[in-house]
Design a protein that fits this description.
There is one protein chain. The strands form two sheets. A seven-stranded mixed beta sheet has the order 4-3-2-1-5-6-7, sandwiched between helices. A six-stranded mixed beta sheet has the order 9-11-10-8-12-13. By secondary structure, the chain is α/β, with parallel strands linked by helices. About 40% of the residues lie in helices and about 20% in strands. Helix 6 crosses helix 7.
């Protein structure tokens, strides 16, 4: 009889909800031998050792869509009890953006749990505390970089051969990709930022995207997956706003960011005169990395990238003259959840 694999999901937000829906669909379509036994938000864990039915999962999703804490669920228990429910062979899935369950995931991994992550923070802690995730065959983290685009699995395949990766470069932010496409169309910095914010492309505070830290985290994850034991301070980060604007409230920033219109307009004009466009690019090597708004030729790999798409260019000993290019949509709950599900299935099988 085929063993049924138990899933505990941390973070039933937009991505977590999309993942639950995809799990239910996969079970119905392929008779996948898994059952969701636990779902945890920031307040509580809901646990059923027999596994939740589709109806019960949909009820939990409804609670979260209605902004309710899982503490109101009849099967809820406090988060400090989670360790009592862990056992070897379970798959722990982290779709949060929190650092609060980092230690729990490490403990689960040590006891033989599988760990699947969309949460970049687990993998960008100091190397001493993150290395277990990179060194274990029981972890997967495709959706930490470019959502469901198969960047991490491609790097893993290259690293499993005699090839040697030299440089990885990428446009890794859908938000900043949208911003650059607006620059291409002659839209001012402030108008592009405000439109992106209004459309929901940015975080509630747009500076969380414009600061470049999220891109740097993705670059660090790619580097560490290649065995390059870099730290966050090894990635030089170029912010797209000034220190003066950093101290404002989000609302005040949106009203005052027009102060940078002339600066970015001049950068765009200079690039265009050289037959180039601006792209926010991360580059990483075994020695370190950087993120910056970079002029590139219009017909280059990054120059022809439009909108919120992501693209990664890998140069290696084999892919030297003609680099390996991977591109696709790098944002969205459904795409991110798809990458997580693929990781889960790979570990289970």
């Amino acid at each position: 009889m085929q063993e049924t694999n138990e899933i505990i999901l941390f973070g039933p937000g937009l991505v977590g909800q999309a993942l639950l829906n995809q799990i239910m669909e996969m079970i119905q379509r392929n008779h996948l031998p898994i059952k969701t036994v636990g779902i945890a938000d920031s307040k509580a864990l809901v646990f059923n050792p027999e596994g939740f039915s589709n109806q019960e999962i949909n009820a939990i999703v409804d609670m979260k869509q209605n902004k309710q804490t899982l503490m109101l669920h009849p099967l809820a228990t406090t988060l400090d009890k989670i360790r009592e429910f862990l056992k070897p062979g379970q798959t722990l899935v982290d779709t949060t953006a929190s650092e609060s369950i980092h230690q729990l995931l490490l403990e689960g991994l040590a006891m033989g749990c599988k760990v699947v992550m969309a949460n970049k923070r687990n993998l960008t802690q100091p190397w001493q505390t993150s290395q277990a995730f990179f060194n274990s065959p029981l972890t997967r983290y495709e959706s930490t970089v470019c959502a469901g685009v198969p960047v991490m699995s491609s790097l893993a395949r290259l690293n499993s051969t005699t090839d040697q990766i030299k440089t990885i470069s990428g446009c890794l932010s859908g938000t900043l990709g949208y911003l650059c496409s607006q620059f291409d169309a002659g839209v001012s910095y402030s108008e592009a930022v405000r439109t992106a914010h209004k459309l929901g492309y940015t975080e509630p505070d747009p500076r969380d995207d414009l600061g470049g830290l999220d891109v740097a985290r993705k670059a660090l994850i790619m580097a560490r997956s290649c065995g390059w034991t870099l730290e966050m301070e090894d990635i030089a980060i170029a912010s797209l706003f000034t220190p003066e604007l950093a101290t404002l409230s989000p609302i005040d920033f949106l009203s005052e960011c027009h102060q940078l219109d002339a600066y970015f307009s001049n950068k765009c004009e200079t690039a265009h005169q050289e037959g180039k466009v601006l792209r926010y690019i991360a580059t990483v090597t075994p020695q370190g990395g950087s993120t910056s708004l970079t002029p590139v030729l219009t017909n280059s790999d990054f120059g022809n990238l439009a909108g919120a798409g992501n693209k990664v260019v890998i140069q290696s000993q084999i892919y030297a003259d003609n680099p390996l290019v991977i591109s696709g949509s790098g944002a969205g709950a459904e795409i991110t959840a798809s990458g997580i599900l693929a990781d889960m299935i790979e570990l289970i099988r």
